Structure formats: C-alpha cells, structure tokens
Amino acid sequence: MSKPTVAQLLDAAVAAVPGGEIRPGQQAMATAIAESMESGTHLMVQAGTGTGKSLAYLAPALLSPRPVVISTATLALQSQLIATDLPRLSEAVEPVLGRKPRYAVFKGRHHYLCAAKIGADATDEEDTLFSDTEESGWVGQRSRLGKDIGRLTDWANDTDTGDRDDLDPGVSDAAWRQMSTSARDCVGAANCRWGGECFAEAARNRAREADIIITNHALLSIDIMHNRTVLPEHDLLIVDEAHELADRTTSAARAELSANSVDRLGRRASGVCGKEIAAQLTEIADQLGVVITECPNTRLEELPTALTEVLTLLDGACGTAIGEIGNVKPDSPEYMSRTQLKSWLTEARETAQRCLAGGRQDVRWCEGDGRGRSLIVAPLSVAGLLGEELFAERTVIATSATLTLGGSFDTAATSLGLKKENEVTEADKPSGTNTGPMWRSMDVGSPFEYRKQGILYVAAHLPRPTASGLSDAAADELIRLVTALDGRALGLFSSKRAATTAAEVLREKTDLPILLQGDETLPLLVKKFKADARACLLGVMSLWQGVDVPGDACQLVIVDRLPFPRPDEPLSAARSAAADEAGGSGFASVSVPHAAIRLAQGVGRLIRTGGDRGVAAVLDPRLHTARSYGPYLRKSLPPLWYTTDSDKVQGALRRLAATPADLR
Fold it and tell me: What sign has the CA pseudo-torsion 332, 276, 326, 199?
C-alpha cells in the first residue's frame, strides 16, 4: 500500500463525523503542519473556534514515523481527544493507513494509585488528620477519610488503570494523596517492591507503544525542566491551547514554603533523624509562620532580616537531616520511607536556597491568610527556558484560537522564546541572522460569520471603573441588557465582589434565575444554565475561559471591566518593572497583552457554533476611549459588528428574545 497523503487522512477523518465536511481553514492547517514536519520548521497556527483544529493536526500527525506527543492545557480538551476524536479517527483511517493507530494518555504519577501504598496500607494518620484540618472537625474528617481510603483499597483490586479519572464516584483530595505519590517522592519501579504492579508504570508502558500520546502542559513543562527525560521520545510535538503554555511552565517552576510544610517535615524526621533535628525543624516552622505572617502580599525585592535568618536555619537543618539519612540500600525495609523523606528535605532545602539567592531571574512573595500563608518563589520569565528546550531536536506545532494579539503573533511568539528575526518570511527565508529556532506563522481564520452573528457593544457612556466592585451606573446598564433579552446571559466579572453585587442587583430587580459561581459546583451551575432558558450565570476568571455553552442558552456575554492584572500582583508587577528598566513600557508589554488574551477568551464565549447569535457587552468605556490600547484590544477580539449605541443593542436583544426558538 502506497503512503497516504494528509488530504486522504483528513478526508477519511472528516467523513467519519455525522454530516461532516472539511471546514474552511482545516485543509490549509493540515497541509501546513505536514510541510513543517517535512522541513523541520516550527509552526504557530491560529485556528478560530469552529475550525476543527483537532482533526486538522491529528491527520498529519499520523504520517509521522515516530510517536507524536499532543499537549493540552485543559482536561476538557484532553477528554475530547481521548473520548471522541481519537477513537473516531482511529477507526476512520484504518482502511487508508493500513493499520489502526494506537493512542494513550500520559499523566503525572499523582493521577494513579500507588501500588506500594496500597500494598503496605500506608497511611500517616498524624499528617492526614491534623496537617490540613481544623482541630475541632478532625473526628468527622477521620471518619470520611477512612471510608475513602477503604474504597480506594478495594478499588485497587478491580481497576485495570488505577487512574483517578476512572473512579466514580470520586474521593476527597486528602484520601487520594494518601494512596498516590508524586514523581519526586517515587523511588522508581526498579527499586520498589511493588514495581511490577505499578499503575503509573503500566500507563507509561502503554504510552511508549502508542502512535499518539496525549499529555498536559504541566507534565510537558516538567519534561522541559528535566532535560526531556519524562515524556517518551518523539520527533513531533503539538501544543494545543499554546497561549497557556508559558503560564503553566511558570507554575511548574514555582516553589513554596509554609509553616505547615516545614512542621510536617519535623514530624516525619522524628523517627528517622532523631528528636533533636525534629525539634529544630518544628521550631523553624513556628518562626517561619510568624515571619511570613508579617510579610505583605507583594513582591519581596529584599528579604526581611528575620526571614533571611529563618531560611538560613532551614537550609542548615535540612542539610543535617539529609546527612543523617545517608545512603539507603534498595533492599532495606526502610528504603522507601527514608528515600521519600530525603526527597522532601532536599526540596525544602533547595527552595530555601533559591529564596535566599534571589537574583533578577526569580520573584519572591508571600500569599495566603493566617497559618495558611506561604512564601513563594517563581521565575520572572520562562521564555529563555522554552526557547532553548521546547524546540530542541523536534518539530513543534503551537496552535490556539487566541495566538494573535493586536493582529500579530509577536507577543505569543516571544512568550514561547521565539525570536522575530528567525521567523520565515513569504520568500521562505529568515528575515535576519539565525540565532535560534526557525519558525513561521499562519492564521487560518474561522468558519463563523462574526459580523452577521454577533455584536460587540462597548458602553462608552459609563464612567471609568474605579474600584473592584460594580458601580451603580454599570449595574443599571446590566439590568437593561439582561431584561431586554429576558435572561440567557453569562456575566464575566473581574472580582468576586463585583459578581456578588451583580447577582444581588439582578435578584432584586428581576425575576430571572440567577446562578452565582461559588453557590454550587461549577459543573452543576453550567448544567443548570444550559437547561433553563431564562437563567443568568455570573462568575469570575474560570468562567472566562472554561465554559462552552453553544446555542440559545448563552446569547449575551457581559464583561464588567477590562481584565488588567492587579497592580500588586507580584509576578506581573515584577515583569512590568523589568520592562520599564529595559527602556520599554511595562504596561504596554505586560498588562495590555494580559488583558487582550483574557478579554478575547471572555468574548469568545458568545459564538461557539455557526448558528449562534448574540451580543458581547463590555461595561468598561476604556475599550472605546483609550487611544493607546483600545484599538489593540479590539483587534484582538473576534470581528463582531461594533457599536457604542445602547438603544440599538437593547433593540437587537429584544428582537432576539422575540424570535421563536427554532428560528434563532
């Protein structure tokens, strides 16, 4: 059988979808990916909602002679690929490809039951019952925890995967932590008595045999930080939802210390390193709790003297404890417990040293409340790391519906460590000297007719927002818009306070069902929102990017204010300061792009299918009036029909409300 073409594979994949046909941009995207695979040139491709980008990259991926890794930012997309797209694709292309492609999910070890803990029935009751539980409620916590652990122990005998996602109903996070392990704590299958029964190793073995491996940005980031030793070997990496990768890598590279975590180290060290070291760690934990309670929730450019002293003590105590543990032989009955304790001590010591070192590449701050406060350290930028490691010795396809900001790929490319001078031009030549990965970009557009399907309305007559709440004028505008449509509104707010105020106002002034994030679990709220034709769903950031409600249930998306980062948010503030020091503008290079991508995600909740209709309303006049950044933000949004006329918009909403459901 001759080698199939990408067009043949895409045709077969699309034909397997009921009523399926190749969508605008889908063929162009698939062809461009195949060309990048052939040339080794990295590709950034923006594919708007409705393009069908998953099939557009899965089809050419099947032409790779070696395994392909696909990384996603959200569980929703990962589930879609595994539960829907790949099973359908695998069946459809078998006649064309001459074989049935194999696929597997590659998750972190903490997603799986730990056979060693199941086999040893290992539960540290002291840590479990008291480390994260209020003293007054520990009896009830213990009872629930015991039942959950019993369920997990029984389930271990029935499950083939040990994957938490396969457990229904689920168990508490506390119970799962007791019966799973992290990559850092794992001693390795070769050194573990239960290595032959390890669920995580079995999953990894399945992934190594697969043609397509689905993972997530968190695990991809860990692989990047550990010299590409985590994921199976591959020549092609497809990063979906690529606009999230830099933030996920930053999260993976951050570390933290708290009084609770150091106190747990002391308790765990007691039986291994002796009571003197344990008491020292416990005392350090108390001192750390006092010191970080007094620190503000802002960037610590210089560490307070007291914090420097306690971190120095922690560094020394951990070093002493590590020395006491020494080298443990794999055949020792204490090998697992001592190796894990050594790992925990090493992590705490490295974090203390990193905080003490400071430097221009890391940002330090404290966050949390009361005894739950933590000292955090995170990289100022991961662009250098990504530029060196992400693109090395493989071809990378980075795709998303929101890769262009202000009409350009520059911001997204820079965040991933790609340099403008290495972009391949129309003439297929780099525009400058090759000093890094060669890449090109393309925007395949969207199949939606945005100007006919929706309106972007900016309430330019409202006063500029001055506080985190909702102004009276904005609340009045909110009521007018929602009542004109008689519900069916998704409210995206910049703060919990503003969302709560909006819910109170709408409940007082209308008879509409108002669903507020936090009142119930988010999946249940979304389910109710979809089911009730007059419901309004109000919430904060997780609704801006994680809710997909096509059809009549969501025909009005309301954004209360432009989502600039808080001025006191440590990472954003540090990045802005660095840009200012370099002679640029921190506001223009950090705050505006941040707002652009979040606003695009929020407004993007409106049009999800070719039949959707509605209005995206922004109650912040700066989107219209700010000459320096308003046009940039508007150009980053889907090209809806634009107006600032409130009367026209209310009229359009009333007409939409009066349209019979089957004609909307």
Answer: positive
605 close to 557: Cβ distance less than 8 angstroms: yes
pLDDT tens digits along 501-552: 999 999 999 999 999 998 888 888 999 999 999 999 999 987 887 678 888 9
**Residue 379, C-beta contacts closer than 8 angstroms, at least 6 positions apart:** 250, 253, 254, 361, 362, 363, 385
Q: Give the CA distances from residue 153 to residues 146, 158, 488, in Å, rounded to whole numbers and listed in that order.
A: 11, 10, 45
The CATH architecture one would assign to domain 450-663 is 3-Layer(aba) Sandwich (3.40)
CB atoms within 10 A of CB 168: 5
Amino acid making up residue 354: R
Q: Give me the pLDDT at residue 548, please.
A: 84
Domain ranges across the chain: 6-102+210-240+383-443, 109-201, 255-379, 450-663
Q: What is the pLDDT of residues 337-379, one digit of tens each?
A: 788 888 899 999 999 999 999 878 999 999 986 557 999 999 9
Residue 620 CA to its chain's centroid (Å): 27
Place of tokens 């007719």: 449
The Cβ of residue 607 has, within 10 Å, a number of other Cβ atoms equal to 26
Beta-bridge partner residues of 378: 363
Higher pLDDT pick, 402 / 664: 402
- Give the burial class of 37: count Cβ atoms within 10 A of its Cβ; 0-12 exposed, 13-18 middle, 19 or more buried: buried
Report the share of the chain in percent with pLDDT over 70. 93
Pairing of strands 489-492, 556-559: parallel
Structure tokens at 497: 């306070």
- Residue 49's alpha-carbon distances to 222, 555, 585, in angstroms, are 29, 16, 32
Q: Return the axis-axis angle of helices 26-39 and 53-61, rounded to nearest 10°.
A: 30
Residue listed under structure tokens 């730990």: 114
Instruction: Decide if 6-102+210-240+383-443 and 450-663 have a common fold.
Output: yes
| Distance (Å, whole) CA 236 – CA 69 | 7
CATH 3.40.50.300 fits 6-102+210-240+383-443, yes or no: yes
Residue owning tokens 């909740």: 605
Please write the tens of the pLDDT for every residue from 428-468: 555 555 667 899 999 999 999 999 999 999 999 999 998 77
Band of residue 129 on the pLDDT scale cut at 50, 70, 90? very low
Q: 279 pLDDT exceeds 90?
A: yes
